[in-house]
Amino acid sequence: MNKRIVVIGGGYGGLRTIEFLAKYEDLDITLIDKNPYHYLQTEAYGYIAGRFDMHDIVIDLQEWSDGFKKKVHFVYDKAISIDFETRLVQTSKSAFAYDYLIIATGAKTNFFSFIPGLREFSYGVKDLHRTYNFRVEFENLIYQKLQKDNCEEINLVIGGAGLSGVEVAAEMANTIEMYKKTIGNRVKTIKIYLIDASKTILPGMSDFLIRNTQKRLESLGVNILTDTFIEKVDKSYIYFQNSQKLKYHFMIFTGGIKASSLNDTVEASKNKISQFIPNRELNIGSQVNVFAIGDCVEIQDAQGNMLPPTAQTAERSAEYAANTIRKRIDKKSVQPFDATVLGIFIALGGRWAAGELFGVIKVKGYVAYLLKKAITHIYYLGLHLRINAGYKNRIKDPR
Fold it and tell me: Could you tell me which residue, 128 or 385, shows the higher pLDDT?
């Protein structure tokens, strides 16, 4: 009898796990997601600024699943609980039995409750709907500037100067500069502010990335406010702990994440943002057949260093979980998880980026942009090839 594999979450980690496991004939795979699509969050910066369209950042999960010749069954539903004793995943409509379970539910924006008004008056990029709303607001602003000779100063604010924050700030600033030929000097009245409580942008990253990112943002006219603490937000102003305030038009917040709500229903060790704290094999609790990967789990390397919550970390943990499941089925020995960040590339507006590979290769400018674009294209092409395969399968075997 085939082993039943259930994957909760169609993000980077969930899809990579399935890619690794679907080649085995003795496995039946079920993918469960509350959304019918895979959202390429790493490309949100370009979508917000209008450089990418919806089809550039969203892939239909049913179409993708069909590409595995009936090996993968997609369930468009929300997982609401897990029963470890009966090995059942309960969704809002049904229940699914598993022999091995991969929890890959990702994370959502952590609108800190100690900052009044933050959730009510800012947008996040972890959720596609909020990202869409932010794009609409941005395009409306440009349209309003085009329609009238409006010299009123408009402040756009990004709270959080981590990877997502600097990419959004850079792309928006570059887009605004490109509109100079369209709306003339009125473009100068649109100001972008990047705010973070840390002493520097990109906290925890290398001096090379910090230094070159800062230079690029400044060249684009981004106003960088570090070591700046937001006290509260209302519909017109952002108030800082130093008694200063900033009038703003709209705000996007990228300053923190927390695990998805499914984690709260599971009895297992967690950190303060509800991420699971797994063992060295990425199992949670005492469940050797349950794995947690990606942003919903606190992942460390062999030296105990925290790995950043990036798509790369999600995929590396997914590959490990898939290989470990195969080895346990085959009754082979398993090694602890050990992965490092192979490299990181930061899109910084237009055809400009900064990046590092293997900790020794450092690139910036157009060359870094081409490398990042190539990496993204390979990933995106893989998704579409799977969808094309699914389309051909349906033509041969209509249902």
Answer: 128
- For residue 393 the two structure tokens come to 């399968």
Domains contained in the chain, CATH given: 3-34+77-109+257-341 (3.50.50.60), 118-253 (3.50.50.60)
Q: Do 104 and 7 touch, CB atoms closer than 8 A? A: yes
Look at residue 355 and give its three-state secondary structure. strand
Rounded CA gap, 263 and 276, in Å? Answer: 7
Q: Give yes or no for residue 395 having a pLDDT over 60.
A: no
Tell me: pLDDT of 161 over 90.
yes
pLDDT at 104: 97
pLDDT tens, residue by residue, 116-128? 999 999 988 888 9
Residue 197 CA, distance from chain mean position: 21
Of 96, 77, 104, the residue nearest 19 (C-alpha): 104
Alpha-carbon distances of 62 from 7, 280, 301, 319, rounded to whole Å: 14, 33, 34, 22
Helices (H), the chain: 12-21, 44-48, 54-57, 61-66, 118-121, 128-147, 163-178, 180-183, 207-219, 311-329, 366-396
